[in-house]
């Protein structure tokens, strides 16, 4: 067993220099209350048993580790395995976190739930658990995303959630998050804010990571069973970075495992239209934490661009910023075009339609296959299914 | 000495009227006219907002003015030029208010230095709570900038003590949980909260967020040392037929508040 190095966050909610609590004073007490409840429940056997129960019987965990035989043959590179988060209930990794947070909300006696969403997967996962636990649910979603992810909007409505259209700024995830925070500041006493990624003020990056870490724990076990050793590399897409942190978590201190995060390069890293925060950004403060961010010389946030709504965000989780600085995880990017090609290729080769977000991780592997040897095992976190993205794909194909 | 401190020592019992004016909305020259009109209407200090792309503690009005100011090319550096202009003709205490990222991007120490040189006296950063502000406070002390932190109805006793200590001259009390802007209904709990705050704090404090009439201003001045009015001014300018009419409407409103408190 490798020595376990002390992991963040520290007592001030920092991962190295990143993280913290940059929020209006009104919110501070709610963060303290949340952290206290979480630290208590994390050690509570009955809470953990309840969480495990929902993860197995409601979410459908463990998700399989699948050998992608035809994709492997196509690449003529390493053996590729998919960690099938797309097979979870609601079709993505997002529900691992919402199940955890709704149980927290229940234990804290909160009855009103709010969330932001980009691709709609987190909104859907939140609406789902709210329906299951009979809680009021309000989802903030940018007008642009409502249009490009219509099927998820319909699902959320069917589940009883109120979907609020956000018309400000870029009308995407960034502005949906700002609007959710404004709601939270206003209704702070009654409302639990289920943040969907490892972003936001402390303790969110920690608790979302902890709830998503089940992905890595299972992967480690499954690799032992399938090929009797650790994988040589793990690849995951990074927007805020929750599926990536979730699968990396168990491997961060395993020096032999190469961890690769793939951001959205949009129209290209030098096009000015991308969401490649770690590649092109610098540290700054947005939505409650200090982390890499894309902003101009005056400190104004630059509108990001990605074909994938889930990656279309100018920031990234603070732990990713720390992991990037230390080099424990290497971050790269894939363009819209590369992601669309991977989306189609994997659909046709494996009969699995990956989310456009996930397609960025697949695109990286396609572009870099020569860097791997045939005897190596590579795990791709197949973070979500791509049904929601089919209209975008066919529209692009026509164009 | 810092103009805020000097002024507070002078006035003794007078209640403070502080308008919030977004730099660059509707444009830079109107901002200057507005500040001048506010001084003439009897305002005690001026709060100049430097715009940010993602003002998450603000309601619709400040979101609107910030958006337009940025579209007009307003920046943090240009906001300092506006402060400099005001300083040429007035000794009114000037407070800048805005979000942390532009300050961070400018460089905290350099910004404080340039702000003092431009005649700025105080700073309010709504997304920088006391617990994250140790470097910031060191820089502020070094450059004689008065730090003004927010207290909220949800702030606990210990944090309130910290806020009281960390504010150089006065505390900014948020009236209710929520973002800036009108449409708020203030219940008895707001009066009680402000009353208790007066007992708990050693420093003076002003109340802000959602104060949009002379009556409400007067009501809150019973417990506080003054009020901040922002969104109401933006909505007056927004609905006026011309920019100059907007300035006149805002000035008339501020005069009516001055008389009321």
List the helices and strands and how they pair.
The complex is a heterodimer of chains A (399) and B (261).
Chain A: E1 14-15, E2 18-22, H1 25-41, H2 45-59, E3 65-67, H3 69-75, E4 79-84, H4 94-107, E5 112-117, H5 121-133, E6 136-142, H6 143-148, H7 150-158, E7 162-166, H8 173-186, E8 191-193, H9 204-212, H10 214-227, E9 233-237, H11 242-248, E10 258-266, H12 277-280, E11 282-286, E12 288-293, H13 318-326, E13 330-335, H14 336-350, H15 356-367, E14 377-382, H16 390-398
Parallel strand pairs in A: 4-14, 5-6, 5-8, 6-7, 9-10, 9-14, 10-13
Antiparallel strand pairs in A: 1-2, 2-12, 3-4, 11-12
Helix pairs in contact in A: 2-4, 3-14, 4-5, 4-9, 5-7, 9-11, 10-11, 14-15
Chain B: H1 3-11, E1 16-22, H2 28-40, E2 46-49, H3 60-71, H4 76-89, E3 94-97, H5 100-106, H6 108-117, E4 122-124, H7 134-142, E5 146-147, E6 150-151, H8 157-166, E7 170-174, H9 188-200, E8 204-208, H10 214-221, E9 226-229, H11 231-239, H12 243-260
Helix pairs in contact in B: 2-12, 3-11, 10-12, 11-12
């Amino acid at each position: 067993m490798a020595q376990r190095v002390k992991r963040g966050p520290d007592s001030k909610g920092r991962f190295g220099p990143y993280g913290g609590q940059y929020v209006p004073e009104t919110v501070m007490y709610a963060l303290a209350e949340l952290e206290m409840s979480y630290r208590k429940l994390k050690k509570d056997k009955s809470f953990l048993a309840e969480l495990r129960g929902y993860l197995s019987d409601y979410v459908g965990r463990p998700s399989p580790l699948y050998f992608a035989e035809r994709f492997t043959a196509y690449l003529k590179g390493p053996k590729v395995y998919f960690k099938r988060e797309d097979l979870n209930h609601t079709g993505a990794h997002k529900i691992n976190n919402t199940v955890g947070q709704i149980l927290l909300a229940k234990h804290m006696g909160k009855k009103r739930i709010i969330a932001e969403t980009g691709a709609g997967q987190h909104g859907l996962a939140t609406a789902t658990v709210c329906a299951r636990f009979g809680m009021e649910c309000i989802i903030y979603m940018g007008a642009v995303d409502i249009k490009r992810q219509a099927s998820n909007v319909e699902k959320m409505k069917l589940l009883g959630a109120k979907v609020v259209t956000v018309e400000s700024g870029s009308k995407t995830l960034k502005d949906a998050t700002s609007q959710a925070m404004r709601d939270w500041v206003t209704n702070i006493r009654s409302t639990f804010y289920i943040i969907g990624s490892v972003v936001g003020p402390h303790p969110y990056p920690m608790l979302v990571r902890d709830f998503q870490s089940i992905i890595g724990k299972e992967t480690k076990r499954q690799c032992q069973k399938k090929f009797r050793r650790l994988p040589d590399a793990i690849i995951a897409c990074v927007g805020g970075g929750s599926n990536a942190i979730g699968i990396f978590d168990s491997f961060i201190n395993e020096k032999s495992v190469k961890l690769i995060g793939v951001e959205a390069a949009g129209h290209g890293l030098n096009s000015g239209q991308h969401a490649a925060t770690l590649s092109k950004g610098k540290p700054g403060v947005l939505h409650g934490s200090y982390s890499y961010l894309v902003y101009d010389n005056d400190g104004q946030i630059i509108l990001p661009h990605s074909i994938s709504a889930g990656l279309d965000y100018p920031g990234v989780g603070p732990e990713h910023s720390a992991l990037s600085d230390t080099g424990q995880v290497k971050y790269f990017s894939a363009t819209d075009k590369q992601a669309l090609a991977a989306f189609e290729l994997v659909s046709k080769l494996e009969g699995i339609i990956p989310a456009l977000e996930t397609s960025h991780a697949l695109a990286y592997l396609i572009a870099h296959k020569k860097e791997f040897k045939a005897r190596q095992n590579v795990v791709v976190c197949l973070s979500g299914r791509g049904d929601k993205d089919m209209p975008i794909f066919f529209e692009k194909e026509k164009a | 000495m810092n103009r805020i401190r000097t002024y507070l020592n002078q006035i003794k019992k007078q209640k403070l009227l502080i308008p919030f004016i977004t730099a660059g909305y509707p444009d830079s020259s109107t901002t200057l006219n507005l500040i001048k009109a506010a001084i003439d209407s009897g305002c005690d200090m001026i709060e100049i907002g430097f715009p940010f792309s993602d003002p998450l503690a603000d309601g619709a009005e400040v979101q609107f003015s910030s958006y337009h100011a940025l579209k007009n090319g307003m920046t943090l550096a240009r906001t300092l030029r506006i402060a400099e202009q005001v300083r040429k003709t007035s000794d009114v205490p000037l407070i800048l208010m805005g979000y942390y990222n532009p300050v961070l991007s400018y460089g905290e120490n350099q910004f404080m230095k340039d702000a003092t040189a431009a005649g700025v006296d105080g700073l309010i950063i709504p997304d920088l709570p006391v617990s994250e502000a140790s470097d910031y406070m060191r820089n502020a002390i070094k450059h004689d900038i008065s730090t003004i932190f927010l207290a909220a109805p949800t702030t606990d006793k210990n944090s309130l003590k910290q806020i009281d200590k960390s504010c150089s001259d006065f505390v900014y009390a948020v009236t209710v949980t929520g973002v800036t802007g009108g449409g708020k209904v203030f219940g008895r709990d707001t009066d009680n909260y402000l009353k208790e705050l007066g007992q708990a704090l050693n420093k003076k404090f002003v109340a802000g967020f959602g104060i949009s009439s002379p009556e409400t201003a007067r009501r809150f001045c019973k417990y506080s040392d003054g009020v901040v009015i922002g969104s109401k001014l933006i909505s007056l300018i927004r609905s006026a037929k011309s920019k100059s009419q907007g300035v006149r409407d805002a000035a008339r409103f501020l005069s009516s508040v001055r008389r009321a408190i």
